[in-house]
From TrEMBL:
Catalyzes the interconversion of methylthioribose-1-phosphate (MTR-1-P) into methylthioribulose-1-phosphate (MTRu-1-P). GO terms for molecular function: S-methyl-5-thioribose-1-phosphate isomerase activity. This is Methylthioribose-1-phosphate isomerase. It catalyses: 5-(methylsulfanyl)-alpha-D-ribose 1-phosphate = 5-(methylsulfanyl)-D-ribulose 1-phosphate. One of its GO terms (biological process) is L-methionine salvage from methylthioadenosine.
Length: 356
């Protein structure tokens, strides 16, 4: 059995409450649009692809529950709900991309289907298909990334990978992006070890990635975020592989806070730095990283762990949730489901492949 962050069965949506991990496995039922928005905003479900899928399936839940008199009513409800859900977290582009695709699907569907029940059925089927598509995309990312890394290994050497935040089954519909590359290396027999950072302040690394690595029996070690410099100076790390919340046209990449400093350390130590992303994370409407909105989270995430204060009372806090890594630090490349691209060829390749 693999870890499932999102379960959608018989029109019902259940999300694994990631705030409770790794201590308790609890699923929450999503019954309304507001439930879905809250779960995303409070980070009960998180990770760019998982946020998008959870958002869209939240709309599917309400569509299944309600009776609509016309296609127009369904369309209006779907558009309004998606517009609201997109506001739940600002940095990850995937939910906006998914909302746009669903809207386009609605518009083309209304040309063929006029019966509201049939329209609703086709629309919810389309929404449901996102789960399988995401797993297939991630497996392809994993394969492309693993092969690129293996190509750079010498002789019988196996890969030692460092990753940041959580980009695995919990952050996607399954398998994962950057962690999918680690899984692929393991499946191909080419992984020696995976290091994961703690990822302060929300601890996605120590709570979630470490949980997935242990669960999958992948040889792995947890380090604090401030140990990366020493690790790279003492160990031969084959590659750093991270995920992303938004990659813009010039290759600048928004990802979990701390990614930028990892990329600088990687450059200094000559370690290839890769970003693993589905093409749904690539935003060609923005030219450079300076246009990306960086989400800022409540200071309580820094000052407390499980309601226990760990910082001096009264201190001011700044808690940006993401940072932007300049494209020229992404030395290994951007691993997509269509192949590995250098940042300076990303836009032309993606436009060619997706015909956009
Ligand atoms: O704040 P989070 O936990 O949603 O941030 C997650 C990340 O930054 C991931 O690296 C990114 O979403 C890619 S997940 C495949």
């Amino acid at each position: 059995m693999s870890l499932e962050a999102i379960i959608f069965k018989n029109g019902k949506l259940r999300l694994l409450d990631q705030l409770q991990l790794p201590f308790t496995t609890t699923y929450i039922d999503i019954e309304t649009i507001q439930d879905g928005w809250d779960a995303i905003h409070q980070m009960k479900v998180r990770g760019a692809p998982a946020i998008a899928i959870a958002g869209v399936l939240t709309v599917a839940v309400e569509l299944n529950k309600q009776n609509f008199q016309s296609v127009d009513q369904i369309k209006k409800f779907t558009f309004q709900s998606l517009d609201y859900l997109v506001t739940s977290r600002p940095t990850a582009v995937n939910i906006g991309d998914a909302a746009e695709k669903i809207k386009q699907f609605c518009l083309s569907l209304e040309k063929e289907v006029t019966d509201p029940n049939n329209y609703k059925l086709k629309l919810t089927e389309k929404m449901n298909s996102m789960l399988d598509e995401d797993v297939a995309t991630n497996k392809s990312i994993g394969k492309h990334g693993a092969l690129d890394i293996i190509e750079k290994l010498s002789g019988q050497e196996k890969a030692k990978i460092l990753t940041h935040c959580n980009t695995g089954s919990l952050a996607t519909a399954g398998y994962g992006t950057a962690l999918g590359v680690v899984r692929s290396l393991q499946e191909m027999g080419n992984l020696e070890h995976c290091y994961c950072t703690e990822t302060r302040p929300y601890n996605q690394g120590s709570r979630l990635t470490a949980y997935e690595l242990v669960y999958e029996k992948i040889p792995s070690t947890l380090i604090c975020d401030n140990m990366v410099g020493l690790l790279l100076s003492r160990q031969k790390i084959s590659a750093i592989v991270v995920g992303a919340d938004r990659v813009v046209a010039n290759g600048d990449t928004a990802n979990k806070i701390g990614t930028y400093q990892l990329a600088i350390l990687a450059k200094y130590h000559n370690v290839p730095f890769y970003v693993a992303v589905p093409t749904t994370t690539i935003d060609l409407n923005k030219r450079t990283g300076s246009e990306i909105v960086i989400e800022e989270r409540p200071s309580k995430e820094m000052t407390h762990v499980k309601d226990i204060r760990i910082a001096a009372d009264g201190i001011n806090c700044w808690n940006p949730c993401f940072d932007v890594t300049p494209a020229d630090l992404i030395t290994g490349g951007l691993i997509t489901e269509h192949g590995v691209f250098k940042p300076n060829e990303l836009e032309s390749k993606i436009r060619e492949i997706l015909r956009v």
